[in-house]
Amino acid sequence: MDKKKLSFKDIMINYGVIIIVVLLVIYTGITSKNFLSVNNLTNILMNMSSRLVIALGIAGCIITAGCDLSAGRMIGLGGCIAGTLLQKMDYSQKFFPNMKPMNIFLALLIVMLVCALFGAVTGFFIAYLNVPPFISTMAMMEIVYGINMIYTNATPLGGYVSSYTGIASGRFLGISYLIWIALLVAVITWFIFNMTRHGKYMYAIGGNPQAAEVAGVPVKKTLIIIYAKAAAMYGLAGFMLGAKAGGASVQLGYGYEMEAIAACTIGGVSVSGGRGKVSSAIIGVAVFEILKAALQFLGVNSNAQWIALGIIIFVAISLDIRKYVARK
Amino acid sequence: MDKKKLSFKDIMINYGVIIIVVLLVIYTGITSKNFLSVNNLTNILMNMSSRLVIALGIAGCIITAGCDLSAGRMIGLGGCIAGTLLQKMDYSQKFFPNMKPMNIFLALLIVMLVCALFGAVTGFFIAYLNVPPFISTMAMMEIVYGINMIYTNATPLGGYVSSYTGIASGRFLGISYLIWIALLVAVITWFIFNMTRHGKYMYAIGGNPQAAEVAGVPVKKTLIIIYAKAAAMYGLAGFMLGAKAGGASVQLGYGYEMEAIAACTIGGVSVSGGRGKVSSAIIGVAVFEILKAALQFLGVNSNAQWIALGIIIFVAISLDIRKYVARK
Amino acid sequence: MAEFKLEMKGICKSFPGVKALDNVQLSLRPGTVHALMGENGAGKSTLMKCLFGIYKMDAGEIYLDGQKVSINNPDEAMKYGIAMVHQELQPIPARSVAENLYEGRFPLKSFGPIKVVDHKKMYEDTAYWLKEVKMDFDPKAMLGDLSIGQMQSVEIAKAVSHQAKVVIFDEPTSSLSDNEVEALFRIMNDLRDKGVAMVYISHKMDEIKRIADDITIMRDGTYVGTWSADELSTDDIIAKMVGRTLTNVYPERKNTPGEVIMEVKHMTSISDKSFQDVSFNLRKGEILGFGGLVGAQRTEVLEGVFGIRALKSGEVYVKGKKVTIKHPADAMKAGIGLITEDRRGNGIFGCLSIKDNVGVSTYNKYLKAGIVLDHKKIGEIVDSSIKKLRIKTPNMKEHIANLSGGNQQKVIIARWLANDPDILIMDEPTRGIDVGAKHEIYEIMNDLAAQGKSIIMVSSEMAELLGMSDRVYVMCDGKMRGEIKDKKDMTQAKVMSYATQF
Amino acid sequence: DEETEAATEVTTEAATEAATEAATEAAAEENAEPVANPDLADKKVGVCIYQFSDNFMTLFRTELEDYLVKLGFSKENITIQDGQNDQATQSNQIDAFIADGVDVLIINPVNTSSAETITDKVVDAGIPLVYINREPGEDEEARWDENGWDVTYVGCDARQSGTFQGEIISDLGLDAIDKNGNGKIDYVMIEGDPENVDAKYRTEFSIKALEDAGLEVECLDDQVGNWDQATAQQLVANSLSQYGDDVEVVFCNNDAMALGALQSIEAAGRTVGEDIYLVGVDALTEALDNVASGKMTGTVFNDHFSQSHAAAIAAANYLTGTENEHYIGCDYVKVTADNVADIQEKLK
Ligand SMILES: Nc1ncnc2c1ncn2[C@@H]1O[C@H](COP(=O)(O)OP(=O)(O)OP(=O)(O)O)[C@@H](O)[C@H]1O
Ligand SMILES: Nc1ncnc2c1ncn2[C@@H]1O[C@H](COP(=O)(O)OP(=O)(O)OP(=O)(O)O)[C@@H](O)[C@H]1O
Ligand SMILES: OC[C@H]1O[C@@H](O)[C@H](O)[C@@H](O)[C@H]1O
Ligand SMILES: [Mg+2]
Ligand SMILES: [Mg+2]
Asked: Were both Cys, which of A15, C488, D107, D291 would link to D48 (CB 3.0–4.6 Å)?
């Protein structure tokens, strides 16, 4: 085997997913004229925004070798709480008919706090009662859904005040607020992951929980914070999605956790814990959103899109995982 | 601490879930008259039958420290394939208008083989390309769904021949065929788990995959067999569910994997691998089905049922996990 | 000032089915190294884990400087000035050396109102402490990229960096090279001068004689006694640990090797950084030693033979026939067995019973009608191994994770004995094993050889290598550097001269 | 409450007649093939369906696509997207359609409450819009009218389907139904996806119709079956084993669930039409067969032909410069043993 061949293989292994996506973008750009328009690229960025917030939240859980199946239902709860608090006075189907629409920041705060509370409960069961994250977050997923059903009585919400929908339609420096929010969350998350003690504890717990415990890391407290923080981020994402869709219902966000976990993994967050960066989440989310848009532009049959998505996950992770496989 | 107190606590920790369920059964039996009728108990056993087949399939995956998110969609595929092959000649919406209804055993064989094939593909990616089971089965879940959508074009299937629906309505020694099938599957699974080399290999892989490799266990082959076998069982479950409901659609089985995983865990299968028995799956499935029936009998609001289910999972696993936590 | 820096009194600790500690005591004088001795499973690690707050003891008291204290978790232990180097490595492989060193106590600085980790200080301090322990790798290096020995050195640096008043070393040298051991002893001498009280646990008698001031001996979870190091000879220590006297550690060989049974030719790893062009042969009934410094790639070569590591080229002949080995199962078919050096990583199945741990490699042999496992036969074999190897356990259903390290090792030996290979590769077979058990393992090796089985033994312990081998190959840096055919040429000097031919 | 009354008005006997008429009209239209307009051949159509796996919407979209082609659109210019029952996903798809520059959008919204935002976006982009199957609120429809936007809704009123279900039962008369002789109609309700208006209205209006007919009702059990046959089978089996012979009527929000319920009813040794009554909605082929053979008391035909054709025509109208009304109604059709043959004929 000569050197050249090997390095080509290495490139494929390390950047395989990205290369595939770039090829797809080029192909789609050539065959359907508007794909590479500024308009459509903004669209893709907008679509990425809330997905990124979710992925960054879930990434924290995965890095501790956990996961969070409750993400989707938390998004729904966040979106619905925001929806009930931010309806126009004159909307005929108003949820709280006589309540003035709340200040949007206050509403956001409430959404994030409520979600964080549920997240903290999940974290408590994981940390103190040794319930595996998969099971614990699954249980919370059911509970949050039930609560949201009871709260909204399964009524779809709409008729939002313009300051709320304005979060999606408004722009600053030509860029949608949604994108700014996602950027801000990414920067804060980067800071937490890399610059704070909490971030390092997170990696330690994922890398080797016994070692972390023995080294004096407050494992339990850290876990609770991680799940609470993640839940707050799902709440934020629900808030963003509601603004963008101009409405919300209990189904909002359903199943998003799967895509977020897949996105993180594709980007390089290891489900066995201890490894993963903010950039991993960004790459993974970009892959998914670009793929979805490209498939639609190419006119691929919706049913076949599921298959394409599944195949991409297989291929992407097969290529990627080999980076970490010991040279055997 | 005196002996007595300790042993009460021990009993709670070891049999907590079962005790809670027994109390619930007694309470429901007293407050709603028909709960403890033979009729209703048969009914619960019928409901358990297909769930048990699923749980036993997924248990094998969990014991190897994996999981299987594709179960639900495989059930849907199995139910739909069976549906298309077993329609009456004179049914006007017949999927294959001129095809004679197949022999039901042949149809079952086809269903199980097709599912097993997809399961083997999942297993291949897990075993040979190191794709984590969570991700690999998630990808397969999407693919199988897409394929089923294309295959059936989301047409609801019905008009089954009576020999097919007879599997649910027919009885042998007064017990429904469905229950016999579940029993048979449980016995075979017990045999495989405990009496065969393959079963021991499964536990070894879950206990320590590297060690298994070094000990000469054919890890890759075993993993592929486990995922293929599990998929065949989901196919069987889909076949059973179709017979019982008298019809099938692509949504059949959706989300069942979560409940199956939760049931296994409640019964004592460890998500970190290496631990779990056939009886674990039986206990877990019984807990869920009894709970669901009891909540319905007690007239608990549908939305609140989600919350109750979530809480039971939390409590059950919190009690259970402590069996394995070294007392520090 | 109290006479003792630290006292543990009346310590009791039970695990389900095992009384691991029964009224044990330990008293550390400041400025001394206190050796804690005992067979595998005597309860040494358990006692230290109780001290460090990892286990909650059932009964007993701990006094620090004469004050009674209660220690509930490692964090509290560290706050009391206690540090520990753990027997089972505790690394976080995906993080940097510096982070591993400062985990749980990162230096912070203010970033506006927020406290952030002071990376600059962390890296500088890490570099300082690494230099203290005579190590000079990059604080930013990924811990997982280091060798096991280097990781152990990081653990030592970490314990030292705590500037603790009590430092516990639980078998720190089991994977250190001689140079690294020397460095450790220098550090310990420094600490002694600074008045630090140390506990030192090791199964290597020569180390004890060199470094210990006091010796406490335990047996079966009970306290035997405490002596000054000069009061006891090595034989005394062994007798008190084992409860009987052992005359010759390396038992007499009963046979002479026969014809060549296996030949390995020009084996080269698929990785350029790994072993190149390694050839050797093995005779029937022979104990063949593989010497070299830690990191010489001996393990990799033998794992290559066994089908765990990918090869670029090379051939293996067993009994004159060429065999293709791509998987351990192929190796087993060719009559080869392997006891790996990394017991926890790829040896034991922690959550499985002793029976399943022994049985796993032998199921092919015990099938009824080609399908059903013969549980009765397997049970008998496991039972007899437990007796033969004197594995300390309530019964064969016990989870292997609950056994002491040494007993776990014996279970793995039992696995391969049950498999009955013609050729058994043993990689560091006595690492972490007490003298009594070591002797037993050596006797088993000799018996196997006498039965016509062949053994390849990788050992970093010079005495063992020279004491047991019929013939020795020495590797350095992935290359075969020499063969010592004659027993009388086997000297430490000769082995070292080959082992350092970089 | 006004709204409720209005709905009840719509669903009088007269309306039933009108509905049957509409069905026959649609049938007539069916036979008369539309003329393909060549101007439409290069127009791009974006279609958003709330969820592909939905059986009824599958019939709807298949027919819609065929009919669009008949009207002159070319197949490769029609893109149909699966909203996966998620408004956010659907909104993204709508954005992509806008970016892609489609000429007309046909949207089956996931959440009708999001209609305002969707309309704003689409109107801003200057694209005509046809909503189908799920009706945006009155406020919203009023806006289209006021601003004269090219936006319309084509569909049925779900309240009507519920009322028809109730009427099918009430027409039988109390004596026929009240087997346990307590003077009440004892029923079990199996609901579809609870956030779907169709499910809500069917649950509410089927019972309301009974009460309006002067019958007393008793709800024994009300469970959520999520439109799913297997789930409904299990729920009804549980109900029957709890309430036994007291169960007199099983209402299912759709036919798939009614088919599941039928399995449980038969397994419990009960006979529809003799000691128990069963109604669904949708007129799935198998349900029609069952109505014909008496295994189901009745169902309600959810006329996807008229609806999809009307939607396709509305879309074509916008592109050819013809205006549309802002509300294009269609009617459900009550199906019982009496008229089942007609409906079966129509669906062949
Ligand atoms: N977590 C545990 N659960 C059950 N038993 C345990 C556990 N940890 C240790 N033991 C038992 O306690 C006893 C003492 O073990 P310990 O590890 O302290 O021995 P040790 O003296 O350190 O031996 P070695 O020299 O092999 O390290 C052993 O019999 C062991 O099986
Ligand atoms: N190519 C490599 N790159 C980085 N590290 C390596 C490489 N090869 C070996 N090492 C490290 O060197 C260490 C020793 O290698 P190996 O186990 O082959 O040597 P050995 O002589 O068998 O040592 P031991 O006596 O511990 O068995 C291993 O821990 C391994 O991680
Ligand atoms: O929205 C989904 C639902 O739509 C209804 O119109 C139909 O009757 C139901 O069967 C279900 O398909
Ligand atoms: Mg020890
Ligand atoms: Mg009555």
From this structure: D107
